[in-house]
Amino acid sequence: xxxxxxxxxxxxxxxxxxxxxxxxxxxxxxxxxxxxxxxxxxxxxxxxxxxxxxxxxxxxxxxxxxxxxxxxxxxxxxxxxxxxxxxxxxxxxxxxxxxxxxxxxxxxxxxxxxxxxxxxxxxxxxxxxxxxxxxxxxxxxxxxxxxxxxxxxxxxxxxxxxxxxxxxxxxxxxxxxxxxxxxxxxxxxxxxxxxxxxxxxxxxxxxxxxxxxxxxxxxxxxxxxxxxxxxxxxxxxxxxxxxxxxxxxxxxxxxxxxxxxxxxxxxxxxxxxxxxxxxxxxxxxxxxxxxxxxxxxxxxxxxxxxxxxxxxxxxxxxxxxxxxxxxxxxxxxxxxxxxxxxxxxxxxxxxxxxxxxxxxxxxxxxxxxxxxxxxxxxxxxxxxxxxxxxxxxxxxxxxxxxxxxxxxxxxxxxxxxxxxxxxxxxxxxxxxxxxxxxxxxxxxxxxxxxxxxxxxxxxxxxxxxxxxxxxxxxxxxxxxxxxxxxxxxxxxxxxxxxxxxxxxxxxxxxxxxxxxxxxxxxxxxxxxxxxxxxxxxxxxxxxxxxxxxxxxxxx
Length: 555
Known about the structure:
This protein has 15 helices and 21 strands. It is of the alpha/beta class and 555 residues long.
């Protein structure tokens, strides 16, 4: 795997490389093993640790450091070195020579353990333990997570404050639930193909015969709209597994193919046809749900290995997303994921696919943070730190009632805000389920119809964050706010100016907060703007608002 965009090294790059090399040496890991853990090539890790090149994004340095068991102190030092190494030389000369950081010193062997709490947990400003008074009461019955606790009893919200990371447009993805080739009429950043006529069992109904009509339409539509597509594999044709268990679709089975050569042939046919046109491939839709996959985990890992090898040989620029893992609120789902990791399934992928969803449609989106915490604990214990994409939802979504218009709009926006809140687990992208459908709790836009209030609210959030970098997130007393208030803080650069923008919302109910001295405007999802002064009381509700630090309306 290639690095994610390097900058040429200098003496500051060498200092950064020396620090990474120290961490590597003490951890006892090889360049190859670190690369497998963080999904970089052995040569890329070697370059970064030798100081011959510097990653363009600090997140790459962070992932290498986490794999080596870096401490809070190490991470702070690395960020300072990375900033120096990526500062243009002309700017550095104007400001005079920069002294070597006092914190850069040899690491004693006892300073690091190969597996320890990830650095983000130590960098975090505070870990919040919420008193019983701010626990959220359940209103949806007996939804429960793997530990037996109600899914929406309490919502975890530790504050974190990390180096700024740009909010990429691709974060805002949707799953296309249509075979027409039409794309959303509101702003989104990425699309995923599933439930729109592109299943394996629909594309190859007979051995040796392919029908590309629907996928051609969808790929063409995505290209015209400038949207990177994610293709999803799933639903084995009955001819490829005659005795396989019936799946949720009448033309396919949930079993793997009897002969994996058929799998190889289909993967190769898809990737060769759409080389350079499909950005990413998810190697199974819901691997740990027996309605969608009934094979062994060993077979799934082998399918993953073979597909990854084919994709990387045929289209090296494509992103390989490991089979999607859902049902992570259950011990069964977590056990499947744990075994997939033990069998080194993630060694063959660039990204891990997970399914973040609410157990019930009426649950606030913030309950998904319990899922991200469970995933983080499991992957930390296993010693892996893959990039994460949330690639869908749970099978039960089609049986749940629609939400009212106001709640649907608030929840759709907060779905993406929760994804940003969960930066600590390396979550990079979310695909909302879905676009085009109408028999789901939150409708964004029916095929042939107009965008709903929820869709327009999501579009407004993207306008707010078009040139933003996220710096911190927190909840309640951890960030000096009422217990039901969440916030994320961004730096926004526009027309050569940089200003702070704080998005706040509640998971339930309302709360009153005071405007800080530098807060001037409150922006609402319907496009209206309210001027505020220091000390004014602001009512925070379940509808997110952006509080700007300068008097400028969003464009």
